Amino acid sequence: MSTPEPNRQGPALIVGLGNPGPRYAGNRHNIGFLVADELAARAGGKFKAHKTGTEVVEGRLAGVRAVLAKPRALMNLSGGPVAGIAKFHKVTATSVIVIHDELDLPHGTVRLKRGGGENGHNGLRSISKSLGTRDYLRVRFGVDRPPGRMDPADYVLKDFSATERRELGYFVDRCADAVEVLAAEGLEAAQNRFH
């Protein structure tokens, strides 16, 4: 069994990305919120507004103290709230775990990594700018490429298709499992188990 990521002080800070409000709730872009909601249920908590511009649940996941956060800003402005909650809990930028949608992966595929580019993802771009680094942990949930010539921005702001929704619960569970392993055992252990 691997040991936890070195040098993490304080809780695991796990951020699900999405857009707030019912209008966006079922969008592909909101998969980070869906996974965060599943993790909150596992931790036995309900999201509550926090002064950092996030909604937060504190609890334990896989035996590790965890703070789950969902920015209350629109996706493209999520960096400020993420940096705020990291600072509030004294979590270093490199220990932040961000769950987000990924166009370059098939639907339901989960991949974990540290750092890298943003691939046109404005939520990640905002977070990288606000944290001052790209070197945070990412849990990438595949939503596939848009069909035909559809604009990727329009595609991620559409709800999952009926076919995709049939298996969505399973994929959200699996992604939540990967986040728990990442928080408790570190990146290598999580990659070995879920890639």
TrEMBL record:
<comment type="function">
    <text>Catalyzes the release of premature peptidyl moieties from peptidyl-tRNA molecules trapped in stalled 50S ribosomal subunits, and thus maintains levels of free tRNAs and 50S ribosomes.</text>
</comment>
<dbReference type="GO" id="GO:0005737">
    <property type="term" value="C:cytoplasm"/>
</dbReference>
<comment type="subunit">
    <text>Monomer.</text>
</comment>
<dbReference type="InterPro" id="IPR036416">
    <property type="entry name" value="Pept_tRNA_hydro_sf"/>
</dbReference>
<comment type="similarity">
    <text>Belongs to the PTH family.</text>
</comment>
<comment type="function">
    <text>Hydrolyzes ribosome-free peptidyl-tRNAs (with 1 or more amino acids incorporated), which drop off the ribosome during protein synthesis, or as a result of ribosome stalling.</text>
</comment>
<dbReference type="GO" id="GO:0000049">
    <property type="term" value="F:tRNA binding"/>
</dbReference>
<dbReference type="Pfam" id="PF01195">
    <property type="entry name" value="Pept_tRNA_hydro"/>
</dbReference>
<keyword id="KW-0694">RNA-binding</keyword>
<keyword id="KW-0820">tRNA-binding</keyword>
<dbReference type="InterPro" id="IPR001328">
    <property type="entry name" value="Pept_tRNA_hydro"/>
</dbReference>
<feature type="binding site">
    <location>
        <position position="122"/>
    </location>
    <ligand>
        <name>tRNA</name>
    </ligand>
</feature>
<feature type="site" description="Stabilizes the basic form of H active site to accept a proton">
    <location>
        <position position="101"/>
    </location>
</feature>
<keyword id="KW-0963">Cytoplasm</keyword>
<dbReference type="InterPro" id="IPR018171">
    <property type="entry name" value="Pept_tRNA_hydro_CS"/>
</dbReference>
<feature type="active site" description="Proton acceptor">
    <location>
        <position position="29"/>
    </location>
</feature>
<keyword id="KW-0378">Hydrolase</keyword>
<dbReference type="GO" id="GO:0006515">
    <property type="term" value="P:protein quality control for misfolded or incompletely synthesized proteins"/>
</dbReference>
<dbReference type="GO" id="GO:0072344">
    <property type="term" value="P:rescue of stalled ribosome"/>
</dbReference>
<feature type="site" description="Discriminates between blocked and unblocked aminoacyl-tRNA">
    <location>
        <position position="19"/>
    </location>
</feature>
<feature type="binding site">
    <location>
        <position position="76"/>
    </location>
    <ligand>
        <name>tRNA</name>
    </ligand>
</feature>
<protein>
    <recommendedName>
        <fullName>Peptidyl-tRNA hydrolase</fullName>
        <ecNumber>3.1.1.29</ecNumber>
    </recommendedName>
</protein>
<dbReference type="GO" id="GO:0004045">
    <property type="term" value="F:peptidyl-tRNA hydrolase activity"/>
</dbReference>
<feature type="binding site">
    <location>
        <position position="24"/>
    </location>
    <ligand>
        <name>tRNA</name>
    </ligand>
</feature>
